[in-house]
Amino acid sequence: MGRLLFLSFIVGGITGGFIVIYGLLTKFLSYLLFLGDPFETIPKLPFWYVYAVPIISILIVNYLIQKNEVVREYGVREIADAIDKNKLSFKIKDLLLKIFASSLSIASGFAIGNEGPSAAIGAMIADKVHEFMKLPKHLLKVSLSIGASSGIAAIFVSPVTGIMFAIENLAYEFVRDFGGYLILGGVIAFSIAFHFLEPLIFNYSMGKFVEYRYIIVTFLFIPVITFFVFFYLYLKDRVLYLLGLRIFERFLPFRNYILAIIGGFVIGTILIISPYAAFSGHEVVKILINNSNYFPLWMIFAIIVLRIVATSVSIYANAVGGIFVALMSIGAFVGYGFGEIVNLYFPFEIEPFYFAAIGAGVFMGVNMKLPLTAVVLALEMTYDYNVIIPTGICVVVVSYLASLKFELHKLHLKVKK
Predict the structure, then answer these.
(1) pLDDT tens digits, residue range 12-28?
(2) Which residues pair with 412 in a beta bridge?
(3) DSSP count for the chain of H helices, then E strands
(4) pLDDT of residue 150
(5) Which of 37, 107, 116, 323: disulfide with 29, CB 3.0–4.6 Å?
(6) In CATH, what number is assigned to the domain containing residue 318?
């Protein structure tokens, strides 16, 4: 086990460094493409330029994918299975291309997160270190789990969330014997990223003091967040699935490029309407949970719909990235809008940013089937029982309600027999 200990140190350190490069490159490209802070410059740029950025960027990404299939976004489980079965081999060039393709996708406005590539980067690095150290093949998935948790811990600047993510995705059978190595890799990667990247921090935390009005209002929030979960899943399943697989069958050789152009045009339109409805969502989550910007109620719900469309379109346009943060951003807007409505029409006085934090965790946890990660995320992001307890209640109840209509692990509608 000494070699696994050494592997944890090495993978955590290398992954932390790569994630810092990835995060800073994404921000640099965003400022380069939109000639400054996109939230400030986009309203001042010509329409044609705003359309050109996402369209040209996603065409470049799809070209890279055509030349090298490894650049395409993969879930952590798919990466683990592919390597374990020797169906996919990763090279340094593949890693660098994936980082560039994902950074370009997010920087040009596509509504995807950076956690998927971060987990993939960690998994790739772990695979290479595992191979270099000539560890037994039966420990490969342990190594990949260490890499994945390190990547998530670094990009979220949040070690416990990264560890829980890896456990829920890969490592059930490894928790007892190998959980310590996940912790070691995660905290080392986190400690490196902490000095360069910015974590999501809830500035209004009341710690262990419980305001029961938030728990009571949570039961009003459950049908609201459930509705938007259904809306997201239904739109993704019934509209974009058909668009991606049936309408363009006759154009199969050019299908990816056609979908890329459509996706780029849609993202360009969304950027013009509101930049807050595009990009990964990390910035808007930070804004909402800390109440640092004002959004009229009509704009909140317009952005919710636009972000749902943007996230779905980004996936089908082959933007390289995950949906963890993108889903959090949708939930944060739902929660914030709900809080505003409660203050206007119900005999409760609550702070909307509390429900922005609750909604962010719940929407992600339900759609990605990661309930424990949702609760841990709420804990590590806010350290506030008024967020942690409602998140735990909501994610369980809403997951159950959604599972009655959808197969969440496949994200499509159940078919009645």
Answers:
(1) 899 999 999 998 999 99
(2) 407
(3) 18, 2
(4) 87
(5) 107
(6) 1.10.3080.10
